[in-house]
């Protein structure tokens, strides 16, 4: 019943087309009743009355008209069902994707991308297949037998009762497989999700796989997951095919009973040969829909599992939402106050503890400290990718949890260490920062980010395809493109998370020059491991083990001889060692 409720809810807005499909199916079923009755009339006319040829012509023309009508009805129920299925597939794919966009980072941290892709595409496609074929066939499986049995009871009630004997046996045997097979298909869909996730992971990390020569290992993993999917599919399919075999056998039993009993009745003169012919033909049609329904048993079970999986996904609610009556403040200021903040991805294990500091509007503040100290975690709390368990983040005196999410995130720009670029042109990726930007705005942003020289060197300039994740660009080029994108957004709050890491000295100089343009008149939070890049910050806050341990300017922190001073000296020593030529000892 849960499946039927979900299906009914799913068809909202498309029920009229589905009803038209079923109506055309009923017309098709009605048209199936007529040809055997016309042939019955022909047999009686030939064997009893010896009529003239005009009657033969009339029956032939009538049969031709019925078959034309039946063809139109079949086309109609197929057309309407597919219209419903494809429209619904489009609506569901968009709905699921839009829903995924509303979910918080914590949800995606616990999910594999391939699993979400499987639910967003494969499961919805399974639902489409059932709606396009399963629902019309199910309707026909109900209408055709009932209507034909009604005609048979009119012709000969005793013989009609005998045709019903195999049906309860068939229904009982088929029912016993339904719940077991559905559980099997759930396992199949989960195996497919695992396989898609693995392949997606492998393709995303293909460079790492090749670098470490792990192709054989990853191939073995794909083989193992694919074999599990194959084996579960074979077992589920084996059980799904059993109902068709049962129906075929019991349907044959019904025909044998009719031929045996009907033949005796015909010999005794209690039923005409013409009526017996109708019984035999109708029996083939009566069991045929059950056979078709049995063949759609795996489609039904896939759809039932897929609908359940999709609804489970849609039932997930975000805990990061606009508050009730959220409003945009007037005369918004852009200072940031992190107020006694405590946060952990797991509420029982805090990553940040009692963090408290203030960034004035237009000020540049750097967060530094060892890896894993909680710097990036804090930066993710400002645009509300997560919410703290205790304390608050205030922007312009307003708790970020009281502001509309779109307003908050529109006014925050980020340049991250791992720059993500979409498959598309340079221009496409820049316009993500500001879709309505003019060509002159794009060019000015790229000039300020020191990105225009390399863009103009590309084969088609701003219209050059850069590949998935910007694979055709160097790390420094991607960073400068990200800076240009942030400049184009022109947000008053800026977050720079390791924006100059992992680039050479010359590229770092270009990026630093671009960042100087980007940080002007913006409230800026800088996260850096290269401490040489933050010496001119208005304030440096030192993190260690989820807490702030020092705060001040570069000069002030150096005089304290604390963690910051030790980190600076260690990096200076490392940098000096890297830049000093090393020669092996040679004999005089």
Number of helices: 20
- Can you write the helix and strand succession as a string? HHHHHHHHHHHEEEHEEHEHHHHEHEEEHH
Can you tell me the number of structural domains? 2
Average predicted confidence as pLDDT: 82
Shape field: elongated
Broad structural category: alpha/beta
> What fraction of residues sit in β-strands?
5-15%
CATH superfamily of the largest domain: ABC transporter type 1, transmembrane domain
Note the gap between the termini: 92 Å
- Which stretches are poorly predicted, pLDDT < 50 over at least 5 residues? 583-588
Strand ordering within the main sheet: 6-7-8-3-9-10
Q: What is the CATH architecture annotation of the largest domain? A: Up-down Bundle
Radius of gyration: 36 Å
CATH topology of the largest domain: ABC transporter transmembrane region fold
User: What is the total tally of β strands?
Assistant: 10
Q: What's the CATH class of the largest domain, please?
A: Mainly Alpha
Main β sheet profile: 6 strands, mixed
Helix content: 55-70%
Question: How would you characterize this protein structure?
Answer:
The protein has 20 helices and ten strands. It has helices at residues 2-10, 15-49, 53-102, 105-109, 113-155, 157-163, 166-204, 206-211, 215-268, 273-295, 297-315, 375-381, 405-410, 426-431, 439-448, 452-457, 475-489, 505-518, 554-560, 563-579, and strands at residues 336-343, 352-359, 364-368, 390-395, 398-399, 412-416, 493-497, 523-527, 539-544, 547-552. The strands form two sheets. A six-stranded mixed sheet has the order 6-7-8-3-9-10, with helices on both faces. The protein has a four-stranded antiparallel sheet with strand order 2-1-4-5, with helices on one face. It is elongated, with a radius of gyration of 36 Å. The protein has two domains: 2-315, ABC transporter type 1, transmembrane domain (ABC transporter transmembrane region fold), CATH 1.20.1560.10; 332-403 and 525-566, 3-Layer(aba) Sandwich (Rossmann fold). The chain has 588 residues and is α/β, with parallel strands linked by helices. Helix content is 64%, strand content 10%.
């Amino acid at each position: 019943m849960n499946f039927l409720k979900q299906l009914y809810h799913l068809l909202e807005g498309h029920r009229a087309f589905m009803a038209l499909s079923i109506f055309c199916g009923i017309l098709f079923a009605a048209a199936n009743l007529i040809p055997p009755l016309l042939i019955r009339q022909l047999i009686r006319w030939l064997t009893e009355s010896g009529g003239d040829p005009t009657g033969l012509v009339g029956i032939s023309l009538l049969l031709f008209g019925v078959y034309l009508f039946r063809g139109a009805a079949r086309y109609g129920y197929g057309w309407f069902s597919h219209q419903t299925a494809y429209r619904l597939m489009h609506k569901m794919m968009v709905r699921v994707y839009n829903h995924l966009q509303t979910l918080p980072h914590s949800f995606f941290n616990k999910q594999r991308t391939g699993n979400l892709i499987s639910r967003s595409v494969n499961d919805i496609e399974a639902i489409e297949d059932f709606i396009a074929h399963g629902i019309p066939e199910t309707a026909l499986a109900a209408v055709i037998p009932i209507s034909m049995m009604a005609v048979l009871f009119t012709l000969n009630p005793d013989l009609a009762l005998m045709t019903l004997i195999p049906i309860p046996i068939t229904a009982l045997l088929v029912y016993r497989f339904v719940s077991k097979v559905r559980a099997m298909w759930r396992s199949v869909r989960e195996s497919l999700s695992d396989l898609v996730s693995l392949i997606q992971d492998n393709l995303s990390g293909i460079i790492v796989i090749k670098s470490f020569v792990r192709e054989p290992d990853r191939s073995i993993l794909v083989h193992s997951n694919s074999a599990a999917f194959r084996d579960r599919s074979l077992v589920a399919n084996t059980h799904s095919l059993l109902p068709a075999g049962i129906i075929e056998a019991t349907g044959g039993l019904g025909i044998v009973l009719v031929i045996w009993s009907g033949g005796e009745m015909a010999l005794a003169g209690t039923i005409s040969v013409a009526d017996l012919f109708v019984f035999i033909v109708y029996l083939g049609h009566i069991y045929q829909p059950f056979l078709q329904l049995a063949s759609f048993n795996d489609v039904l079970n896939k759809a039932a599992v897929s609908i359940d999986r999709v609804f489970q996904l849609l039932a997930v609610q975000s805990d990061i939402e606009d508050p009730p009556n959220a409003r945009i403040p007037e005369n918004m200021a852009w200072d940031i106050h992190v107020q006694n903040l405590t946060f952990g991805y797991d509420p029982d294990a805090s990553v940040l503890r009692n963090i408290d500091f203030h960034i004035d509007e237009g000020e540049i503040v750097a967060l530094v400290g060892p890896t894993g100290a909680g710097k990036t975690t804090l930066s993710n709390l400002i645009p509300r990718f997560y919410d703290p368990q205790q304390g608050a983040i205030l922007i312009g005196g307003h708790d970020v949890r009281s502001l509309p999410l779109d307003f908050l995130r529109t006014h925050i720009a980020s340049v991250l260490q791992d720059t993500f670029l979409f498959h598309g042109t340079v221009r496409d990726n820049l316009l993500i920062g500001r879709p309505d930007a003019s060509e002159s705005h794009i060019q000015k942003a790229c000039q300020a980010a020191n990105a225009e020289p390399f863009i103009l060197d590309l084969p088609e300039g701003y219209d050059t395809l850069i590949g998935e994740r910007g694979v055709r660009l160097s790390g420094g080029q991607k960073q400068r493109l990200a800076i240009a994108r942030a400049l184009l957004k022109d947000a008053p709050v800026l977050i720079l998370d390791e924006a100059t890491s992992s680039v050479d000295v010359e590229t770092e100089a270009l990026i630093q020059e671009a960042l100087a343009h980007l940080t002007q008149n913006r409230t800026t939070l800088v996260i850096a491991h290269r401490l040489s890049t933050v010496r001119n910050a208005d304030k440096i806050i030192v993190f260690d083990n989820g807490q702030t341990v020092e705060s001040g300017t570069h000069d002030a922190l150096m005089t304290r001889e604390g963690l910051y001073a030790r980190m600076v000296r260690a990096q200076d020593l490392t940098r000096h060692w890297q830049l000093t030529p090393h020669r092996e000892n040679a004999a005089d």
